[in-house]
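tmp note - Transcriptional regulator, TetR family
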Amino acid sequence: MPPSRRQQQEHTRERLLEAAERVFTARGFAGASVDQVAAEAGLTKGAVYSNFASKEALVVALMRRRLEASMSEVREQLARSGPADFYAEAGREYQAEARRGAGWAMLVVEFWLYAMRHPPVRTVLADLEHELRTQLAAFLDDLAAQGGGRPALPGYEMAAVHTALDIGIALQALLDPERVSPSLYGTAVGLLGGEAPPGRDGRQPPPAPRHPGRPPDAAPGAGSSPS
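out:
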């Protein structure tokens, strides 16, 4: 049975999002164009605009896609590891991703700065980040209720701190990797989550879930990466 029109549209949209992620993480928001996304996807520019109203809308859709995927991943991870080992497993994943690249972290910060100067985009992005914090807060509250740490702040505030630490430390580690290690994130979030400081029990406090908007880079065919 051939795919329905709706299935074809969903497939086209997914192709565009995958291509957009490669192009934007390689070139940045300012350096990328809708034409480049269309070419990377093997589709027309019209196909892009029939699915996304603007270049900005395409980036917001990418962020929402990553939010949904990442929240699903951390829930599955909790189901596999249990609350006692969740932070340690999440910490290993965070550091592995930090080593794989930084195009997404750079794109997120670039787009935030762009949004602050463009009020309509700012409103949309602020709502998306609020949705992220709300979902992450619910997850952290549930994790704490199952015995996963003793958070020093309410869930929503913890979620905001996680985001700030995640992006901030990632960027500092990219700028000055010899002086700033991604492992600092694990120490800071572990302390906020009620873990013992390093050395108190012979273990390094592991980090909480990474910010869902930051995947590893994958930029084949999208030009040279700024990272």
